[in-house]
Design goal:
This protein folds into two domains: 243 residues, FAD/NAD(P)-binding domain (3-Layer(bba) Sandwich), CATH 3.50.50; 157 residues, no CATH class. It contains 14 helices and 21 strands. The strands form five sheets. Strands 1, 2, 6, 7, 8, 9 and 21 form a seven-stranded mixed sheet that branches. A seven-stranded antiparallel sheet has the order 16-15-12-13-14-11-17. It has 415 residues and is an alpha+beta fold. A hairpin with a 5-residue loop joins strand 12 and strand 13. Bound molecules: flavin-adenine dinucleotide (FAD). Flavin-adenine dinucleotide (FAD) binds next to helix 1, helix 2 and helix 14.
């Protein structure tokens, strides 16, 4: 009989198993894949953005899916604890833009290996290539887990750390939602987050902007009344199916929510190519470029304002002949060109699938979880951690932070 069984060896399960075994308690970690931490190993483009060096308030701002639920867990273990934890394990970290923390080696394997070494040090028993098929529940009491072959394993505590449904080849196939349901828990609606956005706009279908990236633009998802429901100022990329890049990933969950709110598939998004300039300032700048080279073709006088392909596209959209010079430019056409630079509006029709998303939105309802312990409000000896919970953050280290924090706190309760 084990003190604790942890189902799932992603960041949340690895940390939960380490934390639960700190006082020499007998812990079993089960994972259905042949290796632990498969998703962790490919995270951050193989570099693992392990956490973020910002205040709790900033962290929570970047976890739009129930970030506030983590406040009390942060009192026990937070992003600064994560940084100290890995440095103590000999994994030196470095800070990059926007507070993002990576191993100095740029190798996610160092993070995975450090956690695996802790499992060995704490004598955690590990079963890989072993699938849990259900919880073992008798008389409404969690007794342990049941494996594929019907084998029952008993434990005083069970921690569900099975992740979401995204990138299923890493083992995250949503099994934990079935276990949670079996225990009487509510699963909120699942949806893809941090995922590219799709569009049928002619400029997407014709691929004329494909591969073009825009730096530091403001990308908005628009409500029915044309007002932004969210705006993110970051980089973005036009693709062969729509848009991607950091700003698009962050906006993606709002596309999903706005589609539901507007009860229609097609909704509007908007790009402000110069978010730090007012319409007046931008007009002055463009006018000066034209005036300084009035005899030149517009496409040449405005060279460098934005990427050439985007410039030509927007000039055409404004009915401006690329070859005409500044002498012939009509005020209405220039106004339209400026309007497009500040309010380029286009229709989108959804996102790529949950399987292709970086993160799964929705999950085990946090209303049924005790925030300070990650314990189930329905069963004293059942705990949840990581992405299986209805918690999701933006890219930038926020999801692994949530997984490690909730894993540590859940494990602590089982010591
Ligand atoms: C490509 C990619 C890059 C990412 N990069 C980052 C990043 O740099 N920073 C960041 O913060 N977030 C990143 N994320 C998100 C982050 O990786 C996840 O949020 C995080 O891994 C979730 O951890 P978890 O422990 O909850 O679940 P997972 O990492 O999904 O692990 C769940 C584990 O449970 C096991 N399992 C599932 N069902 C069963 C079962 N029935 N029996 C036994 N075992 C089971 C699986 O095999 C798996 O090992 C990235 C995601 C992707 C897809």
């Amino acid at each position: 009989m084990y003190e604790t069984i942890v189902i799932g060896g992603g960041p949340s399960g690895l940390m939960a198993a380490i934390s639960a075994s700190e006082n020499n308690k007998k812990v079993l970690l089960i994972d259905k894949k042949d290796q632990l931490g498969r998703k962790l190993q490919i995270s951050g483009g193989g570099r693992c953005n392990v956490t973020n060096n910002v205040s709790h308030d900033e962290l929570i701002k970047h976890i739009p899916g129930n970030g506030k639920f983590l406040y009390s867990a942060f009192n026990t273990f937070d992003n600064y604890s994560i940084i100290r934890y890995f440095e103590n394990l000999g994994v030196a970290l470095k800070e990059e833009d926007h507070g993002r923390m990576f191993p100095k080696s740029n190798n996610a394997k160092d993070v995975v290996n450090a956690l695996k070494e802790q499992l060995i040090k704490n004598q955690v028993e590990v079963k890989t290539t072993t699938k849990v098929t259900s919880l073992w529940i008798e008389d409404n009491t969690i007794k342990g887990v049941i494996l594929s072959e019907g084998v029952k394993i008993e434990a005083n505590h069970v921690i569900i750390a099975t992740g979401g449904k995204s990138v299923p080849h890493t083992g995250s196939t949503g099994d934990g939602y079935t276990f949670a349901t079996q225990a009487g828990h509510t699963i909120t609606e699942l949806f893809p987050t941090e995922v590219p956005i799709t569009s049928n706009e002619p400029f997407v279908k014709s691929k004329i902007l494909q591969g073009l990236s825009l730096q530091n633009i403001a990308l908005s998802v628009l409500r029915k009344n044309g007002k932004p429901s969210i705006t993110h100022q970051m980089d973005m990329l036009f693709t062969h199916f729509g848009i991607s890049g950091p700003a698009a990933l962050r906006c993606s969950q709002f596309v999903y929510h706005e589609q539901k709110r507007q009860k229609q598939k097609e909704i509007k998004m908007m790009i402000d190519v110069f978010p730090d300039l007012s319409v007046g300032q931008l007009t002055q700048r463009v006018q000066k470029m034209i005036n300084d080279a009035k005899d030149k073709a517009i496409k040449n006088s405005l060279k460098g304002l934005v990427h050439e392909r985007f410039l030509h596209f927007l000039l055409e959209q404004s009915n401006i002949n690329l070859e005409e010079n500044g002498h012939h430019l009509k005020k209405e056409a220039l106004d339209q060109f400026i309007h497009l630079l500040k309010h380029f509006t286009f229709t989108v029709n959804g996102t790529l699938s949950i399987e292709k998303a970086f993160v799964t939105g929705g999950g085990v309802s946090v209303k049924e979880i005790i925030p300070a312990t990650m314990g189930s409000k329905l069963h004293d000896n059942l705990f949840f951690c990581g992405e299986v919970l209805d918690i999701h953050g933006y890219t930038g280290g926020y999801n692994i932070t949530s997984a490690l924090v909730t894993g540590y706190v859940a494990g602590m309760q089982c010591r």
